[in-house]
Design a protein that fits this description.
Elements lengths: L1 H18 L2 H12 L4 H31 L5 E5 L6 H17 L3 E5 L6 H9 L6 E6 H10 L10 E11 L1 E5 L7 H10 L5 E4 L2 H14 L4 E4 L3 H10 L4 E4 L4 H5 L3 E6 L25 E9 L4 H16 L1 H9 L3 E2 L7 H22 L5
Helix pairs in contact: 1-3, 2-3, 4-11, 6-13
């Protein structure tokens, strides 16, 4: 309560000097009428005290705001539709973060343009901690090389914490005439341009182009507005291939689709029967995606610290860890759950993947 009263006082103080409050107006009147002496000195002294307080008011307001944060609901932007990996991870984390922050976290799905619409909305948001975004390798690194964006994927955001990472899996429609990766590659070579692959995100575009280069195959790339519609068409048999996260493994178990290989050095714990690309003789197809939380650039450090603490607390919860593991994702180790670690990861992946995107000639669909 005391902090709120002081905050209100300095707010009014700063506004009075900035807009020409009563002391400022009285001094102007006296200057115009020509008074001198003790009255003028007292007014001048009051005004200087007033102005001095106004100088420190913005800094005090930032501190006071951080101390009372959060005092209202927080919006978590998810740059893809419901059902995508970004959405699933975001909802799991938000559910636990709201308990420690004491405020609701409202999920806002803002999809389109490989996630750049939602991420752009976050970049333009007021940096007060009440808008955060579920980011990742695709939207906070790869899109920077694929699109001419009205924001900078690195410099217009403040990292909060890495969340989880996972390799990708190559899936196909269940009726595709191949049962393993070698058979798939042989069929694609024998039937150039006759297969189709969904491109629902920049990561999928990169890995699919890498597969074509490494295997010498050619097939059509079909853009989709998210994983959910792409997977629906794969299950329905309207497209042939799709790279996606292990989130789709249950559809393999149900017999709705096939899985050929994992873009990891080791097999998935949730699907140990699916081999890696390296095991199948295609080591060049290697990729690990990740998710992380970001805030708009300029968000106060104290607020970032509170959001980081809430995210770290969520990732330590046994129920959260179990749910994320069941989906085939790995939570980052505790020592890497920092804003600095996320910034370093983002920088390293930009240096790794941007040149490859240019080399492969990948363009935005």
């Amino acid at each position: 309560m005391q902090c709120q009263q002081i905050t209100g006082f300095v707010t009014k103080l700063h506004s009075s000097v900035r807009t020409g409050g009563p002391y400022y107006s009285r001094m102007r009147q006296l200057q115009q009428s020509g008074p001198t002496g003790r009255t003028m000195k007292l007014l001048r002294r009051k005004f200087l005290q007033f102005a001095g307080a106004a100088v420190v008011a913005p800094t005090f307001l930032r501190v006071a705001t951080a101390q009372t944060y959060p005092s209202r609901p927080i919006t978590m932007i998810v740059p893809f539709p419901a059902g995508a990996g970004y959405d699933t991870i975001g909802r799991i984390i938000a559910e636990r973060m709201r308990d420690s922050l004491g405020q609701p976290i409202i999920i806002e799905n803002a999809s389109g343009a490989n996630g750049s619409i939602g991420v752009g909305r976050a970049a333009r948001a007021t940096p007060d901690g009440y808008t955060i975004v579920v980011g990742g390798l695709s939207v906070h690194v790869l899109n920077g090389a694929l699109y001419s964006l009205p924001y900078d994927v690195v410099n217009d955001f403040t990292p909060i914490s890495p969340l989880a990472e996972s390799p990708w899996v190559l899936f196909s429609r269940k009726g595709f005439p191949a049962n393993d990766l070698r058979g798939l590659i042989d069929w694609l070579k024998a039937h150039p341009e006759m297969a189709s692959a969904a491109i629902q995100i920049a990561s999928a575009h990169l890995v699919t182009a890498s597969l074509q280069k490494q295997t010498g195959t050619r097939f059509a790339l079909v853009p989709y507005r998210g994983s959910a519609p792409a997977m629906q068409d794969l299950v329905a048999g309207h497209i042939d291939l799709l790279f996606d996260t292990p989130l789709q493994i249950p559809l393999v178990r149900a017999g709705s689709i096939k899985a050929f290989a994992v873009t990891n050095d080791v097999r998935l714990a949730v699907a140990p029967d699916i081999p890696t690309f390296a095991e199948m003789g295609v080591p060049g197809v290697s990729y690990t995606g990740w998710f992380g939380l970001f805030a708009p650039r300029g968000t106060p450090k104290d607020i970032i610290a509170k959001l980081n603490a809430a995210a770290v607390g969520a990732l330590a919860d046994p129920a959260v860890r179990s749910r994320i593991a069941d989906l085939g994702y790995d939570i980052f180790p505790l020592e890497r759950q920092t804003p600095e670690a996320l910034a370093a990861l983002q920088k390293a992946d930009a240096e790794k993947w941007w040149p490859l995107i240019n080399e492969l000639g990948i363009k935005a669909e």
